[in-house]
Amino acid sequence: MEGEGGTARRRFAEAAREERPDLALLCLLIGAEAAGHAHGGREPGVDEEPAVDRIVDEGQAELDRLAGLLPYERGRTPAQWARALERTLGGQLGFNGAASDYQRLESSLLPEVLRRRRGLPILLSVVWTEVARRAGAPVYGVALPGHFVVGFGDPVGEHVLADPFGGGKRLDEEELSAMVAGATGGTPLSAASLRPAGPLETVLRVLNNIRAWAGPRPEQSGVRLWAVELSLLLPHHPGRLRFERAQLLVERGDFIRGAREMEEYADVVATMEPNAAENVRRAARAARARLN
Predict the structure, then answer these.
(1) Quick check: is 226 in a domain?
(2) Which of 232, 252, 260, 290 has its CA 20 to 30 A from that of 195?
(3) Rounded to whole angstroms, how far apart are CA atoms 221 and 252?
(4) Is 253 left (phi over 0), alpha (psi -120 to 50) or beta?
(5) Looking at 172-250, which runs of residues are DSSP E strands?
(6) Edge-to-edge strand list for the sheet holding 147-153
(7) How many domains does the chain have?
């Protein structure tokens, strides 16, 4: 990928390389990237840094404000922390989700989720974890197959799990098992499913959701492209995203650059997957032929 683009991307790449990545910051920068592409993007030469600063500062301030709304109580148990978040965020403030939220790009953008108080399970879980963390709770995200939830307490000791998409409803083992089985077609709940999700793992899943939203919408190929490009800025990402980016460049009419990146990707995978590499080179030749 040629460079890291504007301010939002540069800051995203820097934040992703930190020793302890800031989940809220990374998600707010995804929102800033989306805002920069809305309505055709900014005019060339326009300084985007003030706009990025505003989105980040307002988002962090709102998370701080929400944390300040939690009633103070010394020595809360995990169950009490879960109940406090459910009452404040889910009950009083109305943060939750519905099936219709899966059809909206805003449901994957933290600034919009903070504004609308609606979103996908993973973004609502980001709100829950970031507010609870600021308030001093032992909290972590859990990347269940098909549904993201939040844990309070010690992941290998006393803990409870809650579903922010459902307003913060606590989940028992039977409900968790049904949730996982429904998403996987019957795979049983395992200890691995319940491990804490790291910030970069969470951010990659957010970007995957954006790619999945844009995929069946050809008119949103630009959204899919920037989601792929942000994913490629993460220290660890699926290598095949490089090929996806090349395909998107070709689809959007940038045949030469798309073909060149296909050829570079083919060189990388040739040793391990020679047949796949030849197919990619064939696609690159077809892209170059479209210039004639």
Answers:
(1) no
(2) 232
(3) 8
(4) left
(5) 196-197
(6) 169-171, 159-163, 147-153, 139-144, 196-197
(7) 2
